[in-house]
Structure formats: C-alpha cells, structure tokens
Amino acid sequence: MSNVPSVYEPISPNLTESRARIEAIFSDCHDLTIKEWSYGRDLEYTSVGILLDTLSQNYRTTYMSALIQDLSPLLGALDKTLTPDKLARYWEAQGVSTHSAHLLDSIEQVTKSLTDGNVVFLLDGWDRAIGCEMPGVQTRSVSEPTMEPVVFGPHNSTIEDLKTNIGLLRALIKTPKLKFKLLHAGEYSRRDIVYGYLSDTVPPEDLKLFEQRLSGIEDKEILDTTYLEEWVEESVFTPFPQVRYTERPDVATSALLTGKIIVLVQGSPTMMICPGLFIDFFSTSEDYYQRTVFSTLIRWLRVIAFIMAITLPSLYVALSTFHTELIPTVLLLAILDTREKIPFPAFVEALLMEFFFELLREAGIRLPRPIGSAVSIVGALVIGQAAIQAKIASPIMVIVVALTGIASFAMPQYNLAIALRVLRFPLMILAATLGGFGLMIGYFLILLHLTKLKSLSQEYLTGFTPLDWSRMLSSVIFRQPIRSMLKKARPGSGGSR
C-alpha cells in the first residue's frame, strides 16, 4: 500500500505523472478506461479522458458526446490555435461550458468523480481537471431476486451481464480500494471471470490462496459461477458448503466490507462469496433491515430449525427403536397406537417417507413454476394421507418428516440445506443400528470433520473454535443494535451479511 500515492495530493501539471498517479490508485481495476485526445494546430498537445466503464451506459458514445458538448464552443471561438495555457485561462476564468461539468483541484476530487461515474479530462501543463457527469449509472430494471426474496431492503438483483453487475457494486461502494481483476477462461466460450475485493479489508493470505487456486483455469470452459466452487474450496467431497451465493448487490456489498472476495462470471446472475464460514450461513442481510428483537427471534428459529433438520428423523428412530423408556408414557402409548399394523420398522418407515418427500421436492423444482408448487403441495397431502390409510406409515412419522422438511427450508442458504439433507440418511442408519450411541458417534464425526475443514485460509468453525462468544452471539444468536455495530465495526471483525 505504500507505493500507492495519496488521494490528497494536488494534480500535477505533468500529464504523464498525473495519469500514473491515477493508474496506481486504481491498480488492479480492469474497468479503468483511459483515452487520449490530441489538440492544437498540429495536434501537438495531449489530453486524456478517464472513466470507469462499468459505471456508465454506452460509455464510448457518452465519452465523445461529453467531450464535444463541453469543447464545441471553445473550438469555434479559438479555431485551431488551442494551447494548454489558453484552455486553462478559459476554464478558470469562465468556468466550464455546461452545468454537467465541474473543475477538479486534487487527486482526491478526481478519484471521487470517477467513482461517481463521471468522465475526467486532464490536460498536459494544467494542474486542474474537468469532471463531466455521465447520463446515468449502469443499473437494471427493479426486480425481485429469484433465490433470495426480501421484505425490507433493496429489491434489485444482479443479471447475466457482467458490466452491469460490477456497475451495481461500484454504485454502492464508491472507492478506488474496490478492486476488480479480470480473467479469461475457455478456448471456445472465452468467458470473462471477475473477482473483486476491498484492498484494505481482505486478509492478504485469503487473497493469495484464492489466486493460487484459480491459477490454471484459463484453459477450462467455465459457463457459470458455480463451476468455480470446486476450484476455490478446500475439500471437494464434504457436504458442507465453503462458499456462499447471492443475487443481491447489498449482500455482496456487505460481504466486501467484511473482508470477503466475490466472484462474477459473464452470463451468470449469481455472485459467489468466499470464504464461506459455518457461522456465515446463519445470518442474512434482512436481519439488519428488521428491528433488533424481531431479528434475534428469527435467528433463534434458524438455530432450532438447523437442529431439527439434521436430528429429528434419526432421533425419532433411536427413541422408538432403542430408548422407549425416555418417551413419556402418554406419548409412547399414542405412538404405539398409531404404529399398530404398520408392517415396517421405524427406520424403513422413515426411509420411505424421506424418499417420497425428496422426490416431491425435486419434482416441484423441475416442473414449470405455475404447476410446480401445486403438484408438490397436492402430492404431499395425497401421498401422506394415502400412506396413513394404507398402513404404510404412521401419522407421527408423517409429522416428523414434514417438520424436518420445513426446518430445512428455513435455512438462509440453499446449499447448507442440501448438506443437511445428505447427512440425515447416514444419521438415520446409525440410529437404527446403535440407537443413541450411534447418534453420538455420528455427531462426533461431523464435529471432527468440521474442525478439520477450512475455507481458504480460515478455519471453517471460526467463532466456535476457538470459542469467540462475542462473534458467535452477534452472528448467530443475537443481532446487536445497528448503532453499537457501526461503532464497533472493523474489517473482518463482525458477522457477515
């Protein structure tokens, strides 16, 4: 960072020096565009126009339009005898020729103007600059995110155009410290891949390891952001996700502010956030748009839902098969009454119902949207009622499977819910063979696996091991008031949104 010039420096009259300063400040920003412009009788003088092309619409046309609009009166008045001194005296004495342009006196003002989506002109021999406003920042029509519906907060989402998505992020984080590096992948698709980070918040070891893992990807055909997950993650065969996905610019912005790296691919509306720690999967951006008490209550529900989604079927199998003495007598009699004439043991019954439920869930996802939800709901009701009447499953088992499915839907991240779906089946096998002892073995193996897992350079259970009560409580159990969170905010210190 010591090689990067200060943004508070004045603009140098030497155009080459000023240009080098701006290029150093916006280093590793592939969307920084610099165009040269010559003027004078023999075109002996040089000027440059600088802009961030992801923040502008039709930036090449806008660039020429702004240039002609601002300089046309001057060209007509002074013919072809323009010199830097004449231009400087004209603009300093009379101001710029349009209300959408303004004079800039320092590198700081140039930087701010660029990150606001303006085009900046520098003249050789002049210690000031001109910032011309662009017609508009790159945005998309407002629409609800498909995978992350929201009640409060921004309702826009990313789309398949890479420049649009980068522009949405640039519009929310207006600083040259937001870096975007460009990669090209694939011999045939030539897909553009961009990863972004805030240079003063991202852990250097995370960034270094991330770039090492992406090395050699240039000759691979990458068609979607999800293709990169196995390149970035530590363990390919673990059911637990080590990255997060989002379609919402506010979620990606919050992740950048807490030291995360985001990845975007041309043609994909999904952004990947890494590293994804276990503690990150229990909070959403909407937690910070709701009142503290309500957000805390929702987080409690998520923790309970997580325990139910991974535990409920196997716990029922263990209790009903091996540990009936732990069930209250009245409840045990009710269970025995409902299981009368059921030809299968509890494990087979649970396995069948889980299979039917997963089948209905997949059918509801793959069918066209207008009929998918109707088929999944009607199918669950019909099959559940028919299974009870046919004595294939007991009502209590239908309730257990339904509650487990609903609990998995309460997980903020879909890929974490998939991990819980995968783990339910081996836990049910352990519960059916060894009872409660088998469950303890299963939980111990899961915990042991999580303690060995890493996401980039960070431990997957950061916040739990070593135990950090403040981070765990604020990121999982409680949502602190916004005022106290903003006062204590440090890069990478709080829970991510």
From TrEMBL:
Protein name: Spore germination protein
The keyword Protein biosynthesis is annotated on this UniProt entry: no
Family: Belongs to the GerABKA family.
GO BP terms, alphabetized: spore germination
Transmembrane segments: 300-322, 392-411, 423-448
GO cellular component: membrane
Keywords linked to the UniProt accession: Membrane, Transmembrane, Transmembrane helix
